[in-house]
Design a protein that fits this description.
Shape: elongated
Helix content: 25-40%
Distance between the termini: 153 Å
Order of helices and strands: HHHEEEHEEHEEEEEEEEEEEHHHH
Radius of gyration: 46 Å
Structural class: alpha+beta
Largest sheet: 6 strands, mixed
Length: 449
């Protein structure tokens, strides 16, 4: 079978166009337009580059002029003027005074602040730096303490001295409240010698300590109205370089401290320590061998319980003193007579108690050593009767401190007689006996420092 050949559709070629590329000038010629004038042939990139170049040149010129002006000032201006221009070119930074732990001795713990104050006054009469504080524990008691000291040896010597006075239960107390404060090199070069300063803390007080190469012969103090305290110590073996210190943050009883060496009028050298204090701070200076202590304390207003209160003066022109509008109550003479009668009655009432305590006290140590229950019970009954008598007495203001100390001593002795007492009975009774001595002795007048 014959297959006819396939007939293909005719292909029609698309239309083709010629493309002619002409420039702008040739187009202008074809269109018969006048040629355009180029106002700015530079591109935007060229303008930006020229702007950056101009800024760099301007900055370089300014730096050059500044360096040139600084060089002229450096070579032409005097040195004092230059020093005043730069604050860091003045005096060096003031360092912080070195701090450390303090050592004190607790020799009495009482329930009354008056009793503790009287015990401290009794010890101060023997030349020891005694003070009182309220314990921070849950059961607050009033403690009589001696110190503070910068070394353990000084505190142990004070503890031994208190033991010879009868306070055999005295114990050491360490205060580290300033140990972690900022430290600084505080040595002052004296050739082969050395002077050091130290700041130590104690309960409610602060002590600035001067450690000298030898024991001073003379120490004088002078406080100015500007709240500065000058402490002059002599003699010194050689000149001392002036030095100044600040205090650690949180210290409020001292602002600044400085030392310097001065020439004495008769020859030789002496040291002057100048302390800047707040107006309210109280200062006391004492010496311990080669150390000079400046004890700074907060102001404490305490009523003198050993002296009767002064009666209020009668207003002048009060009219009839017997009665009526001009009567202001008992006259001064009557008040003095009443106080005198009250003191006389108290002396008569307290005398048998003192006598009974004198009779009982030899048995306190023997009972503490033997520990016999019968003896402890008998002594406790006797002391209980004395305690009741003391608590029922009417005490004049002039004897309030001693009376409270006597009552505290009686209670302390009874506590040491309890069968369940777990401490050292002998040491406890020795402390109670020392408190009896202080309560029954005439009021001691503190030695001024």
């Amino acid at each position: 079978m014959l297959i006819p050949p396939r007939v293909h559709d005719p292909v029609v070629a698309p239309q083709q166009y010629a493309v002619v590329l002409v420039s702008e000038e040739q187009l202008n010629e074809l269109m018969h337009r006048p040629p355009m004038r180029h106002v700015n042939r530079s591109s935007a990139l060229d303008v930006q580059m020229r702007r950056q170049t101009l800024k760099r040149r301007t900055a370089a010129a300014a730096v050059f002029l500044l360096v040139l002006a600084g060089a002229l000032v450096w070579f032409l201006a005097p040195q004092p003027a230059m020093a005043s221009m730069f604050p860091w070119s003045g005096s060096p930074k003031v360092s912080t005074v070195s701090t450390g732990a303090s050592f004190s001795v607790t020799f009495a713990s009482l329930d009354s602040g008056d009793g503790a104050g009287l015990a401290a006054a009794h010890v101060r009469g023997f030349g020891l730096p005694a003070f009182t504080r309220r314990s921070p524990g849950k059961r607050q008691v009033y403690q009589a303490m001696v110190g503070p000291y910068a070394s353990l040896d000084e505190a142990e010597r004070a503890q031994s001295r208190l033991g010879r006075m009868g306070y055999r239960g005295a114990r050491l107390f360490v205060d580290e409240s300033l140990r972690g404060a900022s430290q600084a090199d505080v040595s002052v070069d004296l050739g082969q010698q050395n002077v050091a300063v130290l700041l130590v803390g104690a309960p409610d007080r602060l002590s600035f300590v001067l450690e000298l190469p030898s024991e001073p012969r003379q120490v004088t103090t002078r406080r100015s109205p500007e709240s500065t305290l000058d402490v002059d110590v002599s003699p010194m073996p050689s000149a001392i370089r002036p030095q100044q210190w600040s205090v650690p943050e949180g210290v409020h009883l001292l602002h600044m401290a400085a030392i310097e060496g001065l020439s004495a009028p008769g020859g030789g050298q002496f040291l002057r320590a100048r302390l800047t204090l707040p107006e309210f701070a109280k200062a006391n200076v004492r010496t311990e061998d080669r150390r000079v202590y400046v004890d700074l304390t907060w102001p404490v207003v305490e009523e003198d319980v050993r002296a009767p209160r002064r009666p209020a003066p009668e207003a002048p022109g009060g009219g009839d003193r017997g009665s009526g509008i001009g009567d202001r109550g008992p006259r001064i003479g009557d008040q003095g007579s009443a106080i005198g009668r009250q003191e006389e009655q108290y002396r008569e009432a307290i005398a048998p108690v003192h006598q009974r305590i004198t009779e009982v006290r030899p048995f306190l140590l023997s009972a503490a050593q033997s520990g016999t229950v019968e003896v402890l019970t008998a002594l406790d009954q006797t002391l209980a009767e004395l305690e009741s008598s003391l608590a029922a007495m009417r005490v004049p203001a002039s004897a309030a401190g001693q009376h409270q100390l006597l009552l505290s001593a009686t209670r302390a002795a009874r506590a040491g007689l309890e069968p369940g007492f777990s401490g050292d009975r002998v040491a406890h009774q020795q402390q109670a006996l020392a408190m009896f001595d202080g309560a029954m002795a005439p009021p001691a007048t503190p030695v001024p420092h």
